[in-house]
Amino acid sequence: MADMQSEGEAQAGEAQVPGRKGLGHRTLNESKKLWHIAAPAILTSVLQFSVGFVTVAFVGHLGTVELAAVSVVQNVIEGFVFGIMLGMGSALETLCGQAVGAGKFHMLGVYMQRSWIITCSTALLLTPVYIFTTPILKLLRQSDQVSQVAGKYGIWVLPQLYGYAVNFPIQKFFQSQSRVWVMAAISSVALTLHVFLNWVFLTKLGHGVVGAAMVGNITWWFINLSQFIYLISGFFPDAWTGFSLSAFQALGSFIKLSLSSAIMLCLELWYFTAVILLVGSLKNAAIALNAISICMNFQLWAFMITLGFNAAISVRVSNELGAGHASAAKFAVVVAVVTSVLFGILFMCLVLVTRSDFPKLFTDKPDVMRATSKLGYLLAATILLSSIQPVLSGVAVGAGWQAVVAFINIGCYYLIGLPAGALLGFKFKLNTTGIWSGMLLGTVFQTIILIRITLRTNWQKEALRAEERIRTWGGPPEDEQDATITEGFAASELHAARNYFRADTAITKLR
Asked: Membrane-crossing residues (predicted)?
């Protein structure tokens, strides 16, 4: 552990002192750190998203109504719930990441257990959303036929809600310590199992949407069980020491940050849900819903790539701020954004080249394929923007800016994007194209504002805030000797950070 810590301090020191190494060496070094987290995180995100992707692909061959029903549940009901659950669990990205950077591994297990308490309680409160899927969709002006089938699917898919409650905190626990390859391996096995079970229960046995729901439940709980076995198998001797009553302490502060994270992510994910609802109110809604759902599934598949960079930059920023390395955190942001944009350009070109062909992956209905192809150019532009925005959101989570980003999301998405989409779609009769254009406009404004905030950030102040957050919320270590060592280490790191800031300021003035 000491050798690893010394090596980490040396590497951080190289990144912190701009003149020690050339820009190329620093970029390569940071890229290695980024990809060490991003590569398995991308693989895990793609594999786990593909669970829903595979479900839609199999259900799409059952019929237009079944495809529309499952798509509405995934994008409206599960989209609503997923945002809340992921957000409530995302407080761990800030707290665990900064605790790892400060070397306070004993906090991680308690943080995760606190998050489990919060996410499981939240799941219990959200259970009626699944039970009353049909009346909720009818209230939202969805067709009766689609709402009835969606309601049946929603009730049977309820166990996945509690699967999310267990899954999100444990994934953040692993990510904060860069233990993500095991998650990728588990997810690959789970996806293989998911494809096989869908083929058996839907294609061979003909169990329809109920079979699709049950297969999804099995897949998600297989992932959870496998991850928990890994957790308790002795690979985290410092971070996991078993269940503790300390998890019930300081829940108030933890809930506050969890709610901020949930609001930030929910406002973003619900934006896409609102777009689905607007499309569902158009004439010939079944075809329009299928078209935009296919595009969103493809967009979300590409989004999983940038979501890996979101996880990676969140870990990198939180780790560096927790360690008091402000310049290293800033440099990590630059490398992550540039790398993610390159992937965004690649996927944008892929959509433009295959816009007449990729709908065939989801449907064999000619009218749905034509409607989907018309959205190809807007989909390509959205994918390019989505290569920037998630990385900047990851920076916000790593630094603990969730509340600020929540207000930005309200303004850009709900005061600009949705009204513009409704105006273009209904008033100007542009239908699905107009609604998507409005959504894209809101994303453009949000991305510009996040870029401006990131460029104007004082990273040294963020490092000091991270130290204060760890000291305030961390609680006392398990024995007083460890406390003395830990406090001494934190104080020396803070002192060094302040001295570096003063020296850097003085040099800047001399220049």
From this structure: 34-60, 80-103, 115-133, 182-199, 205-223, 257-280, 287-311, 331-354, 375-397, 403-426, 433-455
Listed in sequence order, the residues at least 6 apart from 408 whose beta carbon sits closer than 8 Å to its beta carbon are 446, 449, 450
Largest CA distance in the chain: 77
Separate counts of helices (H) and strands (E) for the chain? 22, 0
List the end-to-end C-alpha distance of the chain, in Å, as a whole number.
41
Tens of pLDDT, residue by residue, the chain (511 residues): 434 444 444 444 444 444 445 788 888 998 998 888 888 888 887 888 788 878 888 887 777 778 888 888 887 788 778 778 877 777 777 778 778 877 778 788 888 888 898 889 889 999 998 999 888 888 877 778 888 888 888 889 999 999 989 998 898 888 878 788 888 899 999 999 999 998 988 888 878 888 888 999 999 999 999 999 999 888 888 888 888 787 787 677 777 777 877 787 777 777 877 887 788 778 777 788 888 878 887 787 777 777 788 888 888 888 888 888 888 888 999 999 999 899 889 989 999 998 888 888 777 888 888 888 988 899 999 999 888 888 888 888 777 777 788 888 889 999 999 999 999 999 898 988 999 999 899 999 999 999 998 888 888 888 888 777 767 655 444 443 333 333 443 444 444 444 433 334 333 333 3
Give the CA count within 13 Å in the CB-facing half-sphere of 508.
Answer: 7
Cα(466)–Cα(277) distance, rounded to whole angstroms? 40
Instruction: Give me the residue label for tokens 């949000």.
Output: 446
Task: Judge whether 41 and 349 are in contact, CB under 8 Å.
Answer: no
* HEC profile of 226-244: HHHHHHCCCCCCCCCCCCC
